[in-house]
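Q: How would the structure tokens look for this protein?
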Amino acid sequence: MPGATYEQRRGEVETYFDRTAAAAWERLTSDAPVGRIRATVRAGRDTMRATLLGWLPADLSGHTVLDAGCGPGAASLELARRGARVIAIDLSPTLVDLARERLPADLGPGSVEFYVGDMLDPPIGMVDHVVAMDSFIHYRRADIVGALSTLAARTRESVVFTYAPRTALLSTMHVVGRLFPRGDRAPAIEPVAPRVLHRHVKAEPGLSGWRAGRTERVTNGFYISQAQELVRS
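A: Here is the predicted structure in token form.
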């Protein structure tokens, strides 16, 4: 289970996405024109979402999927259209409201239930799959592993997630970000070396019944993220 560092960073993430950056994220995740840098982030996120969802069954009828850190709900919508019962949760009430507004009347065979809160909240209950896209990128390695252990205990089949891989570019961006005035900063991205993360996942007692599956890096301009699959062994 993640500790105090997870709780502290969770508060920073909630404040940033619910207040500081809510309007920017609403624009970024829409069809509205954006600048060159944000366009690379938008395209990178689209590619990453397609990658993660491509690792789940095409037909999710009868399955429950947790969209952990759902944001404006793009993944939730696609999952529902595949037939899933989707539990979509995010720390930001503003982004959850936006996701509700964007949800079309016709979802196809599935459904979406929106909640405001932590993806690790106990009331969520058991699910078949977890999708956590860019929900861990602001957390330290130990907190990522602890969160995965908590999620895995409530998951029957697979957890697909992303993290920030340790690269020269991300490390530079991490340093440069600290030069901005505190009030203008996003919560720092915490790069993690893939081999280090895999080693700690393998050693985590709460993940003893799980194995690492597919992995893929998406790099597009200012968007760099590593996709990882965990499946029950």
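The two ends are 21 Å apart (CA to CA).

Residues 36-54 form the longest helix (19 residues).

Upvote if useful.
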